[in-house]
Automatic annotation (TrEMBL):
Family: Belongs to the PIP family.
UniProt keyword Nuclease present: no
Pfam families: SVA
Subunit structure and binding partners: Monomer. Interacts with AZGP1.
UniProt subcellular location: Secreted
Name of this chain's protein: Prolactin-induced protein
Major place of residence: secreted
UniProt keyword Methyltransferase present: no
Chain segments annotated as coiled-coil in the UniProt record: none
UniProt signal peptide: 1-28
Keywords of the record: Disulfide bond, Secreted, Signal
Length: 143
């Protein structure tokens, strides 16, 4: 009976502690950062049917990531379109990638960014690989 009495006397303090922990957890859950932000732009020169595809990639993570960026399309395109770029992406250093292509028809282009594990890209080989997702993409049509 004495232990039950101690349990009942401690309950207001325990409830206050639980309330404080719950408020702290809610605050921590609100602090979400964007893992990857992508912007795909296409600049077209009408006379020559040449286009430049520009992919801008950034992150809000504090840690750096090794990324590989490349393009896919619904039709076969030759030249620099097939180049793959590997670089280190950090919150203080967003990246821009450029591809030049020629096409005389409408094409759907998908820019893909994979977070990979590769040494010798980020300084001191300090990089993270997200658990939630490691492939990101954005698609646009080139008229």
């Amino acid at each position: 009976m004495y232990s039950l009495h101690l349990l009942l006397r401690a309950s207001p303090a325990a409830l206050l502690l639980i309330l404080c922990l719950q408020l702290g957890t809610t605050k921590a859950q609100e602090d979400t950062r964007q893992l990857m932000t992508m912007d795909l732009q296409m600049q077209i020169a009408e006379a020559s049917e040449e286009a430049t595809v520009v992919l801008k990639v950034s992150t809000e993570l504090r840690e750096c990531m090794v990324i590989k960026s490349y393009l896919l399309s619904n039709i076969r395109i030759e030249g620099s379109f097939n180049y793959k770029y590997t670089s280190c992406l950090c919150d203080s250093h967003p990246r821009s990638f450029f591809w030049d292509l020629q096409t005389n028809s409408t094409v759907r282009i998908t820019a893909v960014v994979d977070v990979i594990r590769e040494l010798g890209i980020c300084p001191n080989d300090w990089a993270v690989i997200p658990i939630k997702a490691n492939r990101f993409s954005i698609t646009k049509s080139l008229p």
